[in-house]
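Subject: mismatched residue count in predicted assembly?

I count 700 residues in my input, but I want to confirm that the predicted structure covers every chain. Input:
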Amino acid sequence: MNSLNLAWRNILRNRRRSLLTLAAIGVGSFAIILFGGQVVSTIRGLYTETIRAAGHLQIQQKGHLEFGRANPGRFAIYNYEALVDQLRNDEYLAPRLAVVTPILHVQGVAGNFDAGMSSAFSGQGVVPADQKTMLAWDGLRLGQAPTASPLLPDDPNGGVIGRGLAQLLGLCPALALTDCAQMPPETIADAAPLPTDVAALAEKTASPTAPEKHNGRVGIELLAASPSGAPNVVRMDVLAAERQGVRELDNVLIGLPLPLAQKMVFGAATPAVSSIVVQLKHAGDLEPARTRIQEIVARNGAPLEVLDFHVINPTFDQIIGMFGAIFRFIALLMSIVALFSVANAVNMAVSERVGEIGTLRALGFERRHIRAIFVTEGALLGLVGSIAGSLAAVALATWINRVGVTWTPPGRTAPVALGVDVFGDSRLLLLTVAVTIGLACVSAWLPSRRAARMEIVEALRHA
Amino acid sequence: MVSATATPAAQLRGIHKHYRLGEVDVPALCGIDLDLPRGVFSVIGGPSGSGKSTLLNLLGCIDAPDAGSVDVDGQAVAALGDTQRTRFRARHVGFVFQNFNLIPVLTAIENVEYPLRLLEDNAPRRRDMARSALIEVGLEGLEDRLPSALSGGQRQRVAVARALAKRPALVLADEPTANLDQATGRGLIDLMRRIQSATGATFVFSSHDPQLIAEADLRVHLVDGRVTAIDTRGGNA
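Triage response: the counts match. Full output below for your records.
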C-alpha cells in the first residue's frame, strides 16, 4: 500500500463529491486541450498560408518596406537576377530552399475605359511558375492542398484581379461572375424630363459597355507611374476574378506576371524588382538561412536587408497574439474552476477526517506527513481529472477532424476545415496535465496546512 | 508486580494543566507527582472529569503541561520540539483508543503496517511485523478485512496490534474496553495482560472498568485532578 494507493482510497470515500471534482477538472482540461488544439491548428494553417504568400524571408532595399510603394524605382533591386542565381546556387542554401523568386509591387489605376470605369489598384508582379511552387508549400505537413493560382507560365499578359475590383470596373457580366452587384443608374431628382431622342442617346452612352475582348479574353488597362514620373499603360487580360478575404484587398488587388508588371513600371528602362522572396523547405532553417543570406547580400555591397515574414506580414503575429490571449483567458478561467473545486474537495475531506488526523499525529505522523496525505489526494484528483479530460478532448478532436466540420476564419472567404490538432504542439497535452496537477497541489496546500496544524488532543475528540 | 529498582517508564513532577472553556479556566490536573515503574500493568481510575485522559495525553506526549515536567522512557519531553516529540512518540509510545480509531480505508494488516512506515523502510519486513502483531492478538486470517467487516472486539484487537507492532516502551490505552461488551472486554484484558507479560512493556490505562482495574498491578486514583490514592496489587504504594 503506497501513498497514491491510500490517496485513491480516500478519494473514493466520498464518490459523489470526488466525481464532481473530477468532472470540473476534466471539463477544464477538456476545454483547454480542445481549444488549444484548434488554436494550434489555426496557427499552423495561418503559418502555411503566410509562407505560401510571402515566403520565409524577403530581400529588399533598405527603406522599401516604408517608402517603396510610393517610390518603386528608388527602392528597387536592379541586378536581382544575379542575386537570385547566387542564392539558388549557394552550397549551404541550395538544399534548404524551396523557392527563390523576384516580385515587384505596383500600384496605379486600373481601367475598363470602354465602360468609362476605373479604380485604384495595388498589385504584385510574380513569376507564375515560382508562385505555383510557393502556393504548394506544405512544410508543416498539414496535407493542405496547394492554393490555386490562375496565372499561367506561358501567358505573359494574363493576370488575376479581386472580385471587388471586377465589380468596380463593371466586369461582372463580361467575366460571367455571379453574386456580383451591378452599379445602380444615377438618378437626378427634380430634373426636367429630357426630350425622347436625347434620353435615348443618354441611356445608350450611360450603359456600361463590356470591355473590348482580345482573342476572346476580357482585358483591362493598367496605368502606373514610372520612376521618372511618366505614365505607363499596359493591357492585362483578366484570367480570373477571385474573392479576397478582406474587402479592402478585394477592391484593389491585382496579380500579374512579373514582366508585365516591370513593363508597366519601368517601360523600356532596365527592369527591377521590389523584393526577392525566399521560401525554405523547413521553418527550422529560417535563422541559419537568414544569416547565410545576409552574408551573401553583404558581399554584394548593395544596401539590402533581409526581412522575415513576421516583419513583412505583421498581421500574422497579431492574429497569433489574439488567439494566444483568448487561449490564456480560457485557460485562466478553467484553472480557477479547477483550483476551487480541488480546494473545496480537500477542505471537506479535512473537515470530515479530523479524528483520523489526530490519530495519525498521535501515532507519530509528522505535520509534513499529514500535509503530504492531502496534497497527494489533491494531486491525484488533478491527475485523474486532467487525464480524463485530455482523453475526452482527444476523442472529440479525432471525431471533428474525421467528420470535417468547417468554418471561415478571419481574412478568408471560403470555409476551411475546422482542424483540432491536439498533438500539433506536444506541450499542450503535457502542460495541461502538469499544470492541472500543480494547481491541484496548490489548491490542496491550504486545507492540508490546516489539517497539519491541528491540535492532536482537540482533533482526537472528533474520532 | 511493581519493580521499584528500575528507572521509571514515566515520571511526572509538579504537573499542572488547565483548560479554558470560554472565559473560565478549568483545572484538569493540579500538582501531579507520579512515577510509573517499567513493565507494569497500570490503571488510572477516577470519576469522569477527574483528569484521567489529560494525564494519559501528557504521558503520550500529545499534550504539554502548563507547569511541571514529564519524562518518558528517560526522555524529558518538554525539551523536545514538535517534530522531535512526534518522532519520539512514533518510536516509544503506542496508543489504543476507546473508539479504536482505525483508518477505515485500510485493511486490518494495513492499519497495523501503516505507522510502521515511520520506523521501518523495508516493506516486506514491515509487512511481517504487522502480520506477527495480528497473529499475536489472534486475528490470523482476518488480515485483509476492512475495519467495517470486523466486530468491535476484533477492531480493538487490530488497534492493540497497531500499538504493539513497533514494540514500544509505553502503551497507553484510553478506556479500551468502554465500547466492548463484558465478555469481549474480558478477552481484551486477558490478551493485553498476556502480551504485557510477554513483552515487558509498560501498559497504562484509563478506565472505569472494574475488571480492568482489578487486573492492574498499579492503580492510580484521581479525583478533581489530584492523585488521591496509589494502590499496588497486594497493598498500597
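Residues 251 and 402 of chain A are 36 Å apart (CA to CA). Marking this ticket as 'not a bug'.
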